[in-house]
Design a protein that fits this description.
The complex is a heterodimer of chains A (270) and B (465).
Chain A: H1 3-6, H2 54-57, E1 61-66, H3 72-80, E2 85-90, H4 93-109, E3 117-121, H5 128-131, E4 137-143, H6 161-170, E5 171-181, H7 184-196, E6 200-202, H8 205-210, H9 213-219, H10 222-229, E7 234-241, E8 255-259, E9 265-266
Parallel strand pairs in A: 1-2, 1-4, 2-3, 4-5
Antiparallel strand pairs in A: 5-7, 6-7, 7-8, 8-9
Chain B: H1 2-9, E1 16-17, E2 20-25, E3 31-36, E4 39-44, E5 49-50, E6 63-68, E7 81-85, E8 89-96, E9 100-108, E10 115-118, E11 124-128, E12 133-138, H2 159-168, E13 172-175, E14 180-185, E15 191-196, E16 200-205, E17 212-217, E18 223-228, E19 235-240, E20 244-249, E21 254-260, E22 270-276, E23 281-286, E24 291-298, E25 303-304, E26 309-312, E27 317-323, E28 326-331, E29 341-345, H3 355-362, E30 367-368, H4 370-380, H5 424-428, H6 431-436, H7 442-445, H8 449-463
Antiparallel strand pairs in B: 1-30, 2-3, 3-4, 4-5, 6-7, 7-8, 8-9, 10-11, 11-12, 12-13, 14-15, 15-16, 16-17, 18-19, 19-20, 20-21, 22-23, 23-24, 24-25, 24-26, 27-28, 28-29
The chains are: A alpha/beta (270), B alpha+beta (465).
Keywords (chain B): Nucleus, Repeat, tRNA processing, WD repeat
Organism (chain B): Polysphondylium violaceum
Region (Disordered) (chain B): 146-169, 385-445
Amino acid sequence: MSNQVVKKKKAIKPYHRIKAHANPASDYHFYYPVSPDQHDWSKNYPDIIKADDEESKKKRVEIADVGCGYGGLTISLGTLFPETLCVGMELRDKVVQYVDERIVKLREKTPGSYQNISVIRTNGMKYLPNYFHKGQLQKIFFLFPDPHFKKANHKRRIISPTLLSEYAYILAPGALAYFISDVEELYLWMYEHFKNHPLFQQVERHVAESDPCVPLIINSSEEARKVNRIDGKKWYAVFRRIEDPATKDKSFVNYTLTSPKESTTTDASI
Amino acid sequence: MSTEQQTTTTPSITLSKAPISFIAHSQNGELIAFAVNTQLFVYNSKSNTFYDIAPTDQHTAFVRSIEFSNHKDTIADNGFIMTGSSDKCVKVWKVVDGNKVQCSKTLPLNKKIICTALNNDNDSLLVSDKCGDVFRYSLFDDSKNKLSTPNQNNNNNNKASKQDERESDENLSFGHYSSIIDLKFSKCQNYLFSADRDEKIRVSKFPNSFDIEIFCLGHKKYITEVLVVPNKPELLVTGSGDGTIKVWNWKQGKCLQTLDLNDKLIDAVTIPQCFDEKNNNLIVSVEDSPNLFIYNFDQESSTFKSTPTTVSLKASPIKVSLVNNSFLVSLMTIEPTSDLLVELETTFEIRQQSIIAESVNKISTVSLDKNALKTLLETIEKKSNRKHVSYARNPQIHKKRTNGGQPKDDDEDDLDDIPSDLDDENTTTDAATTAASQEKPLKLRKMTVEGAKEIEQELASAKQP
């Protein structure tokens, strides 16, 4: 009798609707591991990492979607890179629950797939080093972050010179960082900081344009669809983590990519 | 100052002397500097006299740090003493005319200083503020310092303009997202250790401090102090609010040894004070405990012996400094007559006829009432920058997030809500609904009209077998 009730339904977004903002500076009550070695990833990837199998534990998460929201990108990435472990990170608990249920449902529906994606509730500005070793990640995504327009709240923005050092630490040399925003002011802020950071260099234009992740960051997430609905404009860029700050190409001409496409904009026009 | 006001308005309360909050000494041990509340004292251990310091030169707020320049002989080599204070100033002091210490330079900064670190080149100064940002200044080349001009019009003194200043600050070197509690250079000067209230110890390169070498993770509460062991440069010793002392191989971010003091004291807050290189002793104090704990370093196994020797003192120690083969221990004062300082032999016996302790105990310092003293002690202990509750690995608060399980959900906006209050909403719902859908949190589903309808339907379907 109770079988029907117990069986989980498909997660419906309205039940998980919450405020769009969370203060990253406050102390939330949630678990985070003391160090990366102490986090039990087998709970996140039960089919791939087994708690009693040391060999399977060597497989590490290589893609992180910081501020994954409702998980649109995380799920698309899981399909695009079926062999790579991908994790979405989000601070708002109800959203995390939604994504969690969504992934469970997807796994039930198509057994064998979506095993490589998961979501964790954490504060990406504080606890990334608690989850990832140095140079562990190959890709990191910052999609439509909270713009925090007020000057006094700029410290809450997810991209800042001091935080970029931390992101550089968890990224492997050569790894890519993607960011996109529908707010030009915020885009320029992130772009400037990435551009000025000694450990990041923008990838060449043809690399960015042929990157399979780029269409996903433009269209796959819920936030992106919201922008599409109102025919909004999106600004995005891809940066590479470089190993030695001395190798940063000072003559590199930085450029801006937009969606829908616009006549070529280079650094000079900003 | 508020402390002085309180003492004048409530004279009937027993007053206590302000304790010594900081002790530093020159490389040859000739000069010893003490900070008492806002005052700096400099003592010459050869002539056993205090230097004169003009009251107008002194800081106007609590002195946070004292550092000596890297000169063998501070007087002969034209070395200096540097102090940082909550009054947003860094001062450089020099010995003049043989009996005076004069402030030779004041560097006005636009943030309250929490801790400082001075590089061996005697010029690069790193200062951390309460936001967790670390700024690098040059002590002698002002052209490198982009100091903001003091606000000419007070209208400008709002949050937005402060943020403007912060963002345009070119002296910003690196930063944590939470307050930095301690900042130290490695012995080779090529690395920096910074510890924050989120249990992290970051090892970054210097001067390329944007390049993080590794994180030393393992403490379960805020860090209190980072101690660099001079004759074992590969080791780093840290104390924490979790009651342990951890010994790290900082290059690899590996914890080599954990010395636990929780079995001796409840809720111990450990502070590694100093390391005696000759006898290989690590001196540890615990907040609010009148004892010193001595851990001996065993050369053969190159680990610390896990059982400490305990040395009892009259009051709880605040700072311990090893100067000229004896320990200077500044004590928490309880009465106006109580001692500020005791001198201990390296064998940890109290030196009876200690000239320095006698002269220091004679100095007249500000007397404080209980509340002011408490505030001062909290400032000394950097209490305001600590996070007292840590949720790392706390099974009671964290409900495991398994695939089917529902984690307890937090109020998104409240910073300090108590987890036990969260179930209020569920208990007020009628019994039938709770019984039928225990599997899902009602709180979430009742938020919408559709959700409520769905619950009704589910209830109806549950009744029909």
